[in-house]
Amino acid sequence: MSAKEEFKQITGADDKTAEYFLEAAKGDLQSALSTFFEGSASSGNAAQPVSSHTAPPPKQSRIKTFSDFNNDDDEEEDDQKMYAGGEKSGIAVKGPKKDPQNVIKDILEQAAKGGVKEEPEKKPRYFSGAGQRLGSDSVPSEVIQPPQTRAESEPVSRTLTFWQDGFSVEDGPLLKYDDPQNQELLNAIKSGRAPTSLLNVANNQPVEVKVAHRMQEKYVPPPKKPMAAFTGAGNRLGSIVSSAPSVPGAFPNQTTQSASKPQPPTVEVDASQPVTSIQVRLGDGKRLVAKFNQTHTVGDLRAFVRASTSDPRDFVLQTSMPTTIIHDDKQTLKDAQLLNAVIIQRYV
């Protein structure tokens, strides 16, 4: 059945009306139906055979949980359902899904208004004051102050940039809009609950997210940081030998020191094969971005991470969103769905 005939069957419109709406929607049946129903609803004409049913919004609590956000998504999806037919019978027509661009628009509007409304500071339910250690005749009493973490005392700032083909955080890789995982990240940012792995912060650490609107430009990778100048020690050749006796072992051998430093890891990449970039966040907080062929295995990635650090502890590799531990070293990066992914090293 052609799009024109299907449009006429659903809406009851004539040929001229069907051709008009399909031509305006460039042949997209769903868009044409949505435009037709929206125009019918706004005109308020009782003779139109189309009606849209929406339930009144329930009274909302002032405190929202993650389940509330899930319910909001369900309600938005229900609002997309419309009905065509007579007064007592009809068929349900589901409109197009909400465009991810609408989420970006909401985030930009929140940033223009000053961001998400801050929640009142919650007082800890446990004792957080100072204590006193009792002494004795020989040991005086001592006041024990509560520990304060660096994350609690020092808020950080992160820049979220929207590009034409995706978005990025700070100097991180490009995250595509059409990736379902990245759409979940956008929804979390919109609600003010972005994952700590995305922003590279500690739990409960205050973060100020700055939004940059560059959607007229395509993503441009940040320039590589210049190599640090040499800051080690050196030997002057041909200097005059001092008459003072030398102290054995006073200066370590420079060759031994340089040999003990770990060499930066390298990955052999075949330029004629498909290539992907993977960002690795090491357990010590450092970030690495390396290029692999899509046929490289998880074991190759694990060996690269092992060579990037001198810490001998065992570790696991996991994805950032959702958090999933990667076990099978024989899988290729493509089969493991790790192309352009963010991998986190976690010590066990």
From TrEMBL:
Region Disordered: which residues?
A: 39-157, 241-272
Domain SEP as annotated: residue spans:
155-220
Q: Taking every annotated instance into account, which residue ranges of this chain make up the domain UBX?
A: 271-346
Pfam families the record matches: SEP (PF08059), UBA_4 (PF14555), UBX (PF00789)
| Bias-annotated ranges (Acidic residues) | 70-79
Listed Gene3D superfamilies: DNA helicase RuvA subunit, C-terminal domain (1.10.8.10), Phosphatidylinositol 3-kinase Catalytic Subunit, Chain A, domain 1 (3.10.20.90), SEP domain (3.30.420.210)
Q: Which PANTHER family match?
A: NSFL1 COFACTOR P47, UBX DOMAIN CONTAINING PROTEIN
Q: Where is the composition biased (Basic and acidic residues)?
A: 115-124
SUPFAM superfamilies given in the database record? NSFL1 (p97 ATPase) cofactor p47, SEP domain (SSF102848), Ubiquitin-like (SSF54236)
Instruction: State the superkingdom.
Output: Eukaryota
Biological process terms in GO annotation? autophagosome assembly; Golgi organization; membrane fusion; nuclear membrane reassembly; proteasome-mediated ubiquitin-dependent protein catabolic process
Compositional bias (Polar residues) at which positions?
40-54, 146-157, 252-261
GO terms (molecular function) for this protein are: ubiquitin binding
- Matches recorded under InterPro entries: NSFL1C_SEP_dom_sf, SEP_domain, Ubiquitin-like_domsf, UBX_dom
Q: What is this protein called?
A: NSFL1 cofactor p47
* Source organism of this protein record: Boothiomyces macroporosus
Q: Name one GO cellular component term.
A: cytosol
Which parts pass through the membrane? none
